[in-house]
């Protein structure tokens, strides 16, 4: 934590090496998060880069409170929500069509499974989708999710349970 505080202070003073270290520390984690929200890896990379740009734009106002990673997730989450508003339906149809044409039978089945799961995730309410992505795909602990989303631990557990129930229903596994 203290190292992170010093790194942010160096960035505030324009230390280019500190910016590189900061990006290197969080880039893969934020990219992974964005790629679970966005099936287009190139767009996920754009969202990741935009996350860091927005963080750096507000760096002079940023007050370190030991939750820099959470702040980056919040920025990325907001960008991903904007992405959903614009591309949700057309992206799934486009991905499905492209994959059908370009893949062999076994690869097509894997893609269909991924598309089916992605579509089921997209059909979940935002608050349920968010906890599922953070818990299963980002592999965050329940307490971390609770802290990040600013909700109680029992609510996180409830949302995960409800999301599982709805995903089973959506995937026809009841």
From TrEMBL:
GO MF entry, a single one: sigma factor activity
Keyword annotations of the record: Sigma factor, Transcription, Transcription regulation
Annotated GO biological process: DNA-templated transcription initiation
Domain RNA polymerase sigma factor 70 region 4 type: 116-167
Highest taxon above the source species: Bacteria
Pfam families noted in UniProt: Sigma70_r2 (PF04542), Sigma70_r4_2 (PF08281)
Domain RNA polymerase sigma-70 region positions: 23-88
Similarity section: Belongs to the sigma-70 factor family. ECF subfamily.
Protein name, UniProt field: ECF RNA polymerase sigma factor SigW
Organism: Acetatifactor muris
């Amino acid at each position: 934590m203290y190292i992170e505080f010093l790194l942010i202070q160096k960035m505030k003073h324009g230390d280019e090496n500190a910016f590189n270290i900061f990006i290197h520390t969080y880039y893969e984690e934020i990219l992974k998060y964005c790629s679970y929200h966005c099936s287009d890896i190139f767009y996920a990379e754009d969202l990741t880069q935009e996350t860091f740009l927005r963080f750096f734009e507000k760096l002079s106002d940023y007050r370190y409170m030991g939750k820099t990673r959470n702040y980056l997730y919040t920025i990325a989450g907001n960008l991903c929500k904007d992405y959903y508003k614009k591309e949700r339906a057309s992206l799934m149809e486009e991905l499905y069509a492209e994959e059908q044409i370009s893949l062999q039978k076994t690869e097509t089945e894997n893609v269909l499974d991924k598309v089916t799961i992605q579509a089921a995730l997209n059909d979940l309410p935002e608050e349920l989708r968010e906890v599922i992505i953070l818990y299963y795909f980002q592999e965050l602990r329940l307490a971390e999710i609770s802290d990040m989303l600013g909700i109680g631990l029992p609510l996180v557990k409830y949302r995960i349970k409800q999301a599982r129930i709805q995903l089973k229903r959506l995937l026809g596994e009841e």
